[in-house]
Amino acid sequence: MSTLPKRVAIIGAGTMGHSIALSAAMAGFDVNIWGMDERDVQRGKGGVAEKIGLLCDYEVVHPDEKETIQNRIRFTTVLQECVQGTPFIIEGIPENLELKQKMFQELEALCSPDTILASNTSGLSPTAIASLMEHPERTLVTHFWNPGHLIPLVEVIRGEKTSDAAVDQAMALLHAMGKKPILIKKDILGSVGNRLQYALFREAQYIYEQGAASIEDIDKAVQYSIGRRLPVTGPFMSADMGGLDVFDAISSYLFPDLGTHQASLSTMRNLVDAGNYGQKNGQGFYEWSPEQLQKMNKAREKELIDWLKKDLQTDEKEAR
Question: What's the CA gap between 307 and 150, in Å, rounded?
């Protein structure tokens, strides 16, 4: 049985870093966060305060606990200070392989040999990240989904040399944080979640390119059908409940007709080439006015918080 650390370190105070830190602090862990500079630190502090305030508004966190949780999170711009004496480190710096490789070499030099080094990368290989390290067996990926304090899934991805002990410690820590970790046994591109997400996204693009339905109606088809069902039954359980004979028959004639494109389709490509990146700059498949942006972000946050409350209630019942 792995001994849980009392403190974890987060490398990076950005969107994912500070939300992962909040998730750990809510579970009772002390957290050190490293920011690149004072501006980065202030953004991280602001993000934590905003998110915990919203959790209080929705009664996930009691107002009396707010200060206690925030006090568990300590920011610093000194890397050695952040990681000193910390047995588990989660890196959340930008998605650049060379940058991460350099950071992991620095972390290895600063940490004790038994410190677990995890990357929050959403797509880079743990084997590649650890390739320049002296002890790659202690390295793996813990892929939190955005927003990290609300989405329960964390993908734990082994590198080619990751030890069983490192995996066990990561899984134990994530369970203690109230997450729902899954183990990716093989260093496979995109892991599980993104492969499934992008298979759906490719087919959505293909359906639109065929002129079969509008962008809005394709989104609604997911929201009001499989989107309602998948939180309860994933793809394999849905197939079992629908009847494997039925799913086999449909697969036999539908699979050959599904999109097989090896890159983004033309509408998506044209938007990107024109510099239209979606919510981040106001135009994508949809138009994003400041009002629409605020409305949709609030709607998504509320839905995820509602699900978080349900998960917490379920966990409480199972623990009795």
Answer: 8
The string of pLDDT tens digits covering residues 160-202 is: 999 999 999 999 999 999 999 999 999 999 999 999 999 999 9
3 state SS for the chain: CCCCCCEEEEECCCHHHHHHHHHHHHCCCEEEEECCCHHHHHHHHHHHHHHHHHHHHCCCCCHHHHHHHHHCEEEECCHHHHHCCCCEEEECCCCCHHHHHHHHHHHHHHCCCCCEEEECCCCCCHHHHCCCCCCHHHEEEEEECCCCCCCCEEEEEECCCCCHHHHHHHHHHHHHCCCEEEEECCCCCCCCHHHHHHHHHHHHHHHHHCCCCCHHHHHHHHHHHHHHHCCCCCHHHHHHHHCHHHHHHHHHHHHHHCCCCCCCCHHHHHHHHCCCCECCCCECCCECCHHHHHHHHHHHHHHHHHHHHHHHHHHHHHHC
Q: Which amino acid, 150?
A: L
Q: Structure pTM? A: 0.92
